[in-house]
Description:
The chain has 807 residues and is an all-alpha fold. The longest helix has 29 residues, at 699-727. InterPro entries: ARM-like (IPR011989), ARM-type_fold (IPR016024), Exportin-1/Importin-b-like (IPR013598), Importin_beta-like_NTR (IPR051345), TPR_TNPO3_IPO13_2nd (IPR057941), TPR_TNPO3_IPO13_3rd (IPR057942), TPR_TNPO3_IPO13_4th (IPR058537). It holds the Pfam family TPR_TNPO3_IPO13_2nd.
Amino acid sequence: VHAWEISDQLLQIRQDVESCYFAAQTMKMKIQTSFYELPTDSHASLRDSLLSHIQNLKDLSPVIVTQLALAIADLALQMASWKGCVQTLVEKYSNDVTSLPFLLEILTVLPEEVHSRSLRIGANRRTEIIEDLAYYSSTVVSLLMTCVEKAGNDEKMLIKIFRCLGSWFNLGVLDSTFMANSKLLSLLFEVLQQDKTSSNLHEAASDCVCSALYAIENVETNLPLALQLFQGVLTLESAYHMAVAREDLDKVLNYCRVFTELCETFLDKIVCTPGQGLGDLRTLELLLICAGHPQYEVVEISFNFWYRLGEHLYKTEDAVIHSIFKAYIQRLLHALARHCQLDSDHEGVPEETDDFGEFRMRVSDLVKDLIFLVGSVECFAQLYATLKDGNPPWEVTEAVLFIMASIAKSVDQENNPTLVEVLEGVVRLPETVHTAVRYTSIELVGEMSEVVDRNPQFLGTALVLARLPLEKIAECLSELCAVQVLALKKLLSQEPSNGLSSDPTVPLDRLAVIFRHTNPIVENGQIHPCQKVIQEIWPVLSETLNKHSADNRIVERCCRCLRFAVRCVGKGSAALLQPLVTQMVSVYRAHQHSCFLYLGSILVDEYGMEEGCRQGLLDMLQALCIPTFQLLEQPSGLQNHPDTVDDLFRLAASHVMIPILQWAIAATTLDHRDANCSVMKFLRDLVHTGVANDHEEDFELRTELIAQVLRQWGQQLVSQLLHTCCFCLPPYTLPDVAEVLWEIMQSDRATFCRWLENSLKALPKETTGGAIQVTHKQLTDFHKQVTSAEECKQVCWALRDFTRLFR
Length: 807
């Protein structure tokens, strides 16, 4: 409560910008997250206080005005007793010119905050608010028209007007027929057509047009506005060319955004009635003009539209329609190949992780999605012909090879002379060729695996380890690993004080890659060829692990290497089990690296069913759990160590049950994708143990054990899961939660119905602001939907709809 009072006092004192900004932001955060702290009878005085502060501080700083506007908007959305807030604000401030800027700020953020994730106002209140805002939308449009008349050439005011209008378009509450005839619409296009428009105003107008186009996605029900917007955007082509001529990239990007949104909005028309009415293909011409811009960032804006166009056309399966779009897609592919070219002074292989590398990956995905319209065989041959017939610079060659690699998989690889010719040409590349060309050529060969299999003569002397006879594999693998083992030994022998790096991650990573990709076929009874090699290198890995036991990064690399080694050899690495587990437990007691828990789960996977290994693994689990629990028992232990939670429950789920149900229930609230997924999987598998494999001897024992667990913890678990879904977790986690609830219901449906009913009764029925959170009917409907569900996905659907009432 002190934070509310101190913030209010700081805003009254008005000492300086910093203290006022801090106070305004604190006030906003408190309203968003801690509104429940205030008694209902204080809401009106808080509203009056905030309105007083925003009026008194309106000239101090725009950022303070924004924070206070957000606070007022968030209060209005949660305060059910503040009826008709839009009308109240407009009546109070619209006649004072000096108050218009902050009034517009409030009216801009109000619709934006309706769907804010920071506010958990619930679906019922949200519906009520949207209906209320729709009712007063004409009041806001009239106010904006008045503001335009008063603004004259005041650019800042026009930006505020356009931002506000865009915000109301985004909420989808403006009357489209009314807006089609509004002067605000013609003003938007006027601003976008003028060469002298400033960058900031241009961006605001572009954003607003995009919002309007998004709002009329259902074209038929918004036809008058759709026509006005369609015709308006088509008039901007010459303005785009002017921006290109002036090298004004910001404006070029704005126009491309508008053109793309136009195409997205009229996509159905473009596909169903190409070249007619609102399916006019000048829309695609605009995007192809943008694709011709030298900066790749411009064409990238339109990628989502091209994806969606390809998807729609793929579903139509109409050859006539496809033929209409073929020429457009061909032009796009040529433009994309040009954009994929590296700089002529680029050295080394192409970067894959920088912005341009990611752009090329997106191009590759897009080409794969669109190639069916052009024909992969024809396109592949055409691209190869450009290399064969001409003598292009290396960067052009590399870009063409890159596009060819994108479509190689979709080309019929059986008896295709072009592919064989390409493979032969790649293998015979001269030594002097640029590294990037060689690299992309190898990528292309990798995409042509069937052709390589049919033409092994092109592989020359390159030997693939896994294809060797078993007796040769061990020898070759040993030689391959020896180089890395030698490097590790050298690093281990170095004195730490000699200034040289003793970081072993490179040789460790190389060993991991070797074991990961060595997968020989071993028949029953044969000794795995890699077994001896792994036993030979274990002492060096063990010593490396001991030396760097405090360094999480290096320990992770050691565990990764051991993980792939164990996976490679499988049960053949049993001799390593005891020394490996002993060392893991020893190091973990001193340093709780979560990767040991993950490695432990791999060992349980591999050896959990071996009679002679079970007791040792159980001892390992117990030894690892003790320091883990001590770590998680610290203040905010679960929140601070989500990776440990993730790996702990992976381990717990690996065929061996350990008594950690209380931790699992506590950890269900964790908003961390991997950790939450592992916790839910553990709970699901635990409960499922009671109903699975009913033909096995231990079925009755398992059923009774799970029944005991649920009798003790079932009500708490169901209540926690429901509370977690409503108040803690994002929607993407709901399918995992639904699976746990489903398994509990399968175990004992009648008892589950009672637990769910009790859990629902404990939920809040009203928000702190006095709005209805959930009705009695919504509670009973949800209970019925879940308890009568015949499939897990029905539980998930019910959960998804129900939790919206609390978001």
